[in-house]
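Twin-arginine translocation signal domain-containing protein
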Amino acid sequence: MRDVTHDVPAPHRRSFLKYSGALGAAGAVPASLTACLAGPESTIDTGDGGRGAHRTLTAVIGYGNDGTWDPTQTASAFCMAANNHIYEGLLDTDPISREPYPALATRVPADRAGTSWTFTLRPGATFHDGRPVTADDVLFVFDRILDPGTQTLAKGFFEPWLKDVRKVAERTVELVLRFPFPEGLSRLTLAKIMPQHVFSRPGAWNDAIKGLAVGSGPYRQTAHHPKSNTTFEAYAGYNGPRPPAFEKMNWLSVVDAAPRVARISGGNAGAQIADNIPYANIGRLESGGLTVAGGAGMNNLFLMFNTRRKPFDDVRVRQALHYAIDTGKLVEVALKGHGKPSSSFLDEANPAYRRARTVYDHDPDRARALLKEAGVGGLRIDILAVNVSWIVDCLPTIKSSWDAIGVRTTLSPQETTAVFTKMDQRQDYQVVAAASNPNQFGLDADLILRYNYGPDNLWMRYARWADDPVARQLFADMDRATREPDPVRKKAMIQDCVDVVAEQAVLYPVVHNELMTAWDPRELAGMRAQPYPGINVLRARWA
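Structure:
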């Protein structure tokens, strides 16, 4: 690939989550950003709404819009959802089936198992400033992703299997693979094509972090007010496969549950759609004529242990604390039945799911026995937790479960930023309880596993486990599974890796739960609820 000089260095790995919002499902890790990039002084009532087909689609998003908007870095729920409307990959994926379809490219390669894929760009495709999309823009993005000196989140999704990206002609590129990797086609949606003439200028990557977004997708960003709202309008020059159905959109960032629900309910509802609906509000919203639908997926409450702090370096202690949790009660009381106790790292709907060899069914006697075997008594634990509403609802059950086996437990829910700032700064902690949903990136189990586990993975640095001999063997086994050409054998190898993750319980889900989306069917048609944070309206229209 061409040598590229990056005028803005990538964030240090230890502070990566602060910039990326890598807890997308937990409400995006917010950066300290206050600048308004466009438009008037910040307000959540931008625009007059219009009338009929010319009215504004107003959406209420239950996550912050102040994470990084850099598509190569972000895991912020709000920003990823917005970027899926602003940018295109060579291929994009359906938000529900996750099947790839041609976006900027004219077709999906016929030979998915090949080691070279050639893509021709869509004739007439332009960025939102009117400049044409070229092969140089494609190379610009992949250069950034694969550059060994630039540690982007996207790098981990591409570098293991993608060797090179070459310019064939002005609108044609070739992707050269290290080995056959059919799953890579779906991952191309994670490489959003960005205009080189915009993002190669000094300071542009910092602007991308703050909210600058210029793509070739059906909607262009018109204003961005961190912690408030982001507005969009249909891009008149878009000639791709999923044209815009709404002239204008206003996405409100409302993290608190009560005002978010209020915005979509009642006679004076100011929005047509809202995500992250609390389970307790489902009945009331449905009785008011709204459709409330959910999707079961990888969304989960996980526990992460500091393995450098005793006794959490002992796998028996980690296992004991999982066995102790009354997950049935947690699902019934906190999740109102909208979840399942984890029986694997993967959720049961995942194509690679297999019940793990180690399943943490509620077994307080076994928990006590494991603590005794480990020589641990009088244990006191302070749970450092994110203050996302449904996570907070789950904490009392975890506390009572641990108290019941003689572990004196206190709860410390805090702003997500504060939780991960502590870990960025290498401050001491015992156990973190938070939420995650790798389905934002895709469904393939290799990707999901690598999002949380890997020798250079930030999560493993937080858990301080990457140098453990079991971890090193796991990472080697994961690499072998990635390279395995036979899909049946690959699936079995990944499942074996998941079994190790389950047994070690370093970072492991307690429950998988549904995410609920509500919309007004009298206003919107063609909506589909997705099992990961955010919304996608590329197939929706006015009713």
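Residues 300-513 form a domain with the Dipeptide-binding Protein; domain 3 fold (CATH 3.10.105.10).
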